[in-house]
Structures are given as structure tokens and as C-alpha cells.
């Protein structure tokens, strides 16, 4: 439901909404990063909705201004403790945590 809401918001803008996207920012450690449940990409990436991994070192890939995490029933500590640090390290502007 939240993705649908964000898609309506992004309609008519150059923004893109992605779900379960790998976000990678550290060139020295390309497999380390974050995997937000939802994120807004503004502007859209060249790949559009076919995007599977956001590599911030690639042209046309920029830091998501908004990331959304839905708290996991099995591992809530990940969403409260480590997620804010990971997204801050990537430069994400805003993190929403839904519990």
C-alpha cells in the first residue's frame, strides 16, 4: 500500500519508486550496503523500473532522498539499530521506519 501511495506521489515527476533494491556506495566493498524495503529515486535512473541494484558510483545513480524500512518481525534490531547507520553512511536524506 505504501508503494502505491509513493507511486502516485511520483507520477508526473522525474522520481522513481523502487522496492527491495540493493544500494551500494562503497567502491572498495561492492557487496556491502543497504537493501531498503522501499526507496524514492529522484531523478529516475537510466534503467528505470528495470533497475535491480543502485550503484552510487555509476552515472545516473544518485542517493535516494527517502528510504522506507518496514520492521522485520524476526530481526527488528536490524531496522532500529543498524539501518539508520547504513543509510546515513550512504548519504540518504530521510529514513522512515514503520513498525
The termini sit apart by 15 Å
Query: What number is the mean pLDDT?
Result: 90
Overall 3D shape:
globular
Class from helix and strand fractions: alpha/beta
CATH topology: tt1808, chain A
Largest sheet: 4 strands, mixed
Write the CATH architecture name.
Alpha-Beta Complex
Put simply, the count of helices is 2
Number of strands: 7
H-E string: HEEEEEEHE
Keywords, separated by commas or semicolons:
tt1808, chain A, globular, 3-stranded mixed beta sheet, 4-stranded mixed beta sheet, 99 residues, alpha/beta
Structural summary, described in words:
This protein is an alpha/beta fold. The protein has one domain (2-98): tt1808, chain A, CATH 3.90.1570.10. Helix content is 24%, strand content 26%. The protein contains two helices and seven strands; from the N terminus they run αββββββαβ. A four-stranded mixed β-sheet has the order 1-4-6-7, sandwiched between helices. A three-stranded mixed β-sheet has the order 3-2-5, with helices on one face. β6, α2 (76-90) and β7 form a beta-alpha-beta unit.
Amino acid at each position: 500500500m505504501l508503494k502505491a501511495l509513493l507511486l502516485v506521489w511520483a507520477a508526473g515527476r522525474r522520481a522513481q519508486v523502487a522496492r527491495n533494491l540493493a544500494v551500494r556506495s562503497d567502491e572498495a566493498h561492492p557487496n556491502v550496503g543497504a537493501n531498503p524495503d522501499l526507496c524514492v529515486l529522484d531523478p529516475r535512473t537510466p534503467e528505470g523500473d528495470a533497475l535491480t541494484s543502485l550503484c552510487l558510483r555509476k552515472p545516473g545513480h544518485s542517493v535516494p532522498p527517502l528510504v522506507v524500512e518496514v520492521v522485520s518481525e524476526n530481526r527488528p534490531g536490524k531496522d532500529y539499530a543498524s539501518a539508520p547507520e547504513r543509510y546515513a553512511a550512504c548519504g540518504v536524506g530521510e529514513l522512515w521506519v514503520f513498525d
